[in-house]
Amino acid sequence: MSNLTLRNTMGNRREVFRPSDHRNVRVFTCGPSTYRRPHIGNYRTFLYEDLLVRHLEYLGYGVHRVINFTDVEDKAVDEAADRGLTVKELTEETHGRFRAEARTLGLRLPDRIPQASRSIDEAVAIIERLVERGRAYAFDGSYFFDVFACPEFGKLYGLDSVRMPERRVRFARDTYEGRRWNLGDFVLWHAESDDARRTEAAWETRIGVGRPSWNVQDPAMIVQNFGDSVDIVCGGIDNLYRHHDYNVAVMEAYSEKELAGFYLHGEHLVVNGRKMSKSAGNVLYPEHIQEAGYYPHHLRWYLMSAHYRTRLNFTWERFAEEAALIDGLRSVVENSPSAAGVSPSQEVLTVFEREMNDDLHAAGAVRGLVELFDGRSQLSPEELQAVERIDVVLGLFRDARNESVGP
RNA sequence: GGCGCCGUACCCAAGUGGCUAAGGGGGCGGUCUGCAAAACCGCUAUUCACCGGUUCGAAUCCGGUCGGCGCCUCCA
Q1: What is the pTM of this model?
Q2: What ipTM was predicted for this assembly?
Q3: CATH T-level assignment (fold) for domain A5-266
Q4: Fewer CB near the last or first residue (10 Å), C or N of chain A?
Q5: Is A372 exposed, middle or buried (0-12, 13-18, 19+ CB in 10 A)?
Q6: What are the domain boundaries of chain A?
């Protein structure tokens, strides 16, 4: 159906994309934290996922995308407890702001965003089955995943007996806090705590009173929305170690099927060569871009101006250059005469499809347009027609005739 | 300490085996202009951190060295 090639984190190889159903694609993407607001690096990840979904639709697939809120994880409970809120109230606050900012950036979101707090039954069912199969065990009201009952544990990250033998051996010998059997075992269910009770993040269930851990919330939402497997799992690179590999372990122990055909991981946005962090004081939010006099399309383009699997270094100097580039392109598009009934320029479509089918190289597609239109003041009606068609994916030009966009 | 990514001109950056190593910024020179700005034109890496290897051929592959960054704490 398409010539789309994607780099798959599983195996770290480029593979031709083929969903299990040749017409429909199931995409599972990790949503924002519910305990603090997303910064522009978070939005970079959501943007490449947005481009993935839009491009799959361009290629003719029906796409069922889930973006999730893991709203009962430890930090959400802590934050809610600190502020005297329930986790539900905290989630609603975050959710509203996220939707508003996403809309401004042109990120399309599903109408409904699943929440871990609404998939407790699925989480319990998963844990029960893992216990039945000897893959998980209870201790003092909590439940843990037994990594040694899972021979392939760590296969996504590469944590296997070939690459990290000492780690497996160490897991075999140690115990941790007298609770876990092995150091590598991870929690599936937290027994109820005072903070959890206070923030209403505890549920009475067949396996006890408590809440699902981060490691079982995604599997629960996958089961709730897709069943046993999906076509693509997406997220930021930091989700690879100890989140997606745990998801793989849990889901595959549960279903005895492969979780996903493809795993995509986006690299981080860094600022002046350093990772954004609260302690470094270099965290940038969309409002900082707005305050500097830029518009959402500048940020949207900037965040896609490097391939999603390469680290993007934010500097104001480079931001200004990229803003000038996209404005130049937009003004050419804006000055172009439209005409009904013309067929789109094949040359433009070819550049776009070549780049996007090459592991979603949106930056290459746009730079290809810049090269194609170099020195021109306007496009032919056929070229404009093509630009409008591919902009359904890129989302950079639609507002070219309407500058009233603003965060 | 372990694992991984990266190192292309003054700056940013594309390019992952083969025509003369994209592009942008900056700088320099020019056209235009009362002067300037803007715009446009031209110039700005015999070479891709360094050393060695593979190959007819390497920025691209392999080994090593140096340097930067990231991960190894529920951080997209």
Answers
A1: 0.93
A2: 0.90
A3: Rossmann fold (3.40.50)
A4: N
A5: middle
A6: 5-266, 295-394
